Amino acid sequence: MADSKAVKVNPNLCEPIVLSQRVNFKMVDPTTVGSKHLTFGMVIVEPGGTCEPGHVHDDQEEIFFCLTGNGVVIADDDQKQIPIGPKDAVFFPVGTYHSIKNPSKTPLEALWIISPAGWVFDRDPDMKKQAEQGLPSDR
């Protein structure tokens, strides 16, 4: 049987991943705690910020869960806008375009969970460079 020990995670114990208009904390992942089935983290989006580039996961599902603040999830091929606030969650099936923006004057804190494991910016370094510069997707 594999080693099965609980691991405490906290954004204050993680290296912040600073991208344009937001900071991510990758807390649970194969690269952090050896997770085999999911990746979990938190994003803090600055007031007025947008998480570019929006993207699609070809083989992963994702959930956003808003902790604090108010924002707008941009989703689907038609890029519909879904308002979110504390305790709201949005589920993205495989192949669903998504992004998030914070039009408010206070930070937006949201959790994200991806399954199967793997973080989009680890999988696609060019997309991470776009995110660091705040550039939209090529889609």
Descriptive notes:
The chain is mostly beta strands. The chain has a domain at about 30-120: Jelly Rolls, CATH 2.60.120.10. Helices cover about 10% and strands about 35% of the residues. It contains two helices and nine strands; from the N terminus they run βββββββββαα. It has helices at about 120-125, 125-135; strands at about 15-20, 20-30, 40-45, 60-70, 70-75, 80-85, 90, 100, 110-115. It has a six-stranded antiparallel beta sheet. The longest helix has 9 residues, at about 125-135. It starts with 16 loop residues before the first strand and ends in a 6-residue tail after the last helix.
Describe this structure in a few short sentences.
9% of the residues lie in helices and 37% in strands. It is mainly β. It has a 6-stranded antiparallel beta sheet. The protein has a 3-stranded antiparallel beta sheet with strand order 6-5-8, with no helix packed on it.
